[in-house]
Design brief:
Elements (H helix, E strand, L loop, with lengths): L6 H18 L9 H22 L4 H27 L5 H24 L1
Helix pairs in contact: 1-2, 1-4, 2-3, 3-4
């Protein structure tokens, strides 16, 4: 099975795609601050998952490490979403669309990490 068929990959990809227009809506002064941090964190969830997935049969310890990185990026994304909402750069509607994706990813990643 390819990583592209996994639920984690699909949800992480969906989150990264949905974060982009939210970041583009930020004022210019936030484009290289909050927007960039949110973009990086959300994109790292899937990127780290893929890197670990590719290594799972060759280096199982690396697989677990990249799952932990992916979960860390998920938590970081959640932080930036909370901050963006608190300072009114992220609408309540966008927040309520994005946060459940982070929560769902965590519910999938944490058991995989514990199982390793």
């Amino acid at each position: 099975m390819s990583y592209k068929h996994s639920d984690i990959y699909r949800k992480a990809f969906e989150l990264a795609v949905k974060v982009e227009p939210v970041c583009r809506s930020f004022p210019r002064y936030e484009q290289f601050a909050l927007a960039e941090q949110l973009r990086k964190a959300s994109r790292s969830i899937g990127a780290n998952y893929v890197e670990g997935y590719i290594r799972q049969d060759i280096l199982p310890a690396d697989h677990r490490r990249f799952l932990i990185y992916s979960q860390g990026s998920c938590d970081e994304t959640r932080y930036w979403l909370d901050l963006g909402k608190a300072i009114r750069l992220i609408s309540p509607e966008a927040y309520l669309e994005l946060l459940p994706l982070c929560d769902s990813l965590s519910r999938m990643l944490v058991p995989m990490i514990r199982k390793q």
